Amino acid sequence: MWKTILRRVLIMIPELIILSILVFLLAKAMPGDPFTGSINPRADPAQIHHLMAIHGLYDPWYQQYWNWVAHLFHGDLGMSYEYQEPVVDLIQQRGANTLWLALFTMVLTYGIGLPLGMYAAHHEGKLQDTLVRVYTYVTMSIPFFVVLVIGIWIFGYALNWFPTSGSVSAQASGLGGTVLSRLDHIILPGLLGALFGTVNIVQYLRSEVIDAKHSDYVRTARSKGVPMKDIYRHHIFRNSLLPIAAFAGYSITGLLGGSIFTEMVFSYPGMGLLFLNAINFRDYTVITALVLLYGFLNLLGTLLSDIVLSIVDPRVRVE
Length: 319
Known about the structure:
Strand content: under 5%
Distance between the termini: 8 Å
Order of helices and strands: HHHHHHHHHHHHHH
CATH architecture: Orthogonal Bundle
Helix content: over 70%
Largest sheet: none
CATH class: Mainly Alpha
Radius of gyration: 24 Å
Number of domains: 1
Low-confidence stretches: none
Structural class: mainly alpha
């Protein structure tokens, strides 16, 4: 298995190289520049021309790409035109915020989705199952950003239970105060994101459990007198996790990439909001670094999904 993982990692290298070239070219092909309007809407064109020249934006694309790669191998992703900070520092700061929110959302998603899917399947055709299905249908029918706006209006403004912007309160002091303030800022967006994330888990798990309940090996186990709770725990649940495990890696890396809707509505300074602002301000260095990072996370998610799937089902081997 380790040899296969190493081979898959080595295959990622040419894929990332091709991705970096495409991303670099697409970023440079965007209309506009990072300086017009960012300094002063009435800035002298000569000043903008000077800034473009000293930053090498008039150089041929292959020369700009080579310079970018050379700095990349030294851990330098360039300087953000908009924030006037190293891109590495920006990604570290925003990545930490996104990591907290992603972990919290992931724990809630699977903590709610797995029991709810099992509960609905266990009470197939009953009132409990109907209520769970109504919840999934209603959740799927409402756009995610609408729920975010309603949630922030009710729990943030009307009830004033949770903060509506930022990641840490300015009044937080000390390690304990900072952690509690950060947790307070991610509860509402994490909970709303998890409620939407549970829909696919509940539906997949419910369908798989219902199919497994009527399978031959379950009927055989019941005929041998095996308690139903043991059948659920040792047979049905494990086999029903296969389709969910296949998407686990993508879910993890997708959350790490940041949710643009969530971070935009809550003004949460994470990776998603950073990417959106970088596009608005034509911040080429940030755009290139983030898209390359997202590509790496997507490739990593594919590998993680295969590994998780092989752990859940030993018959599956990572190839």
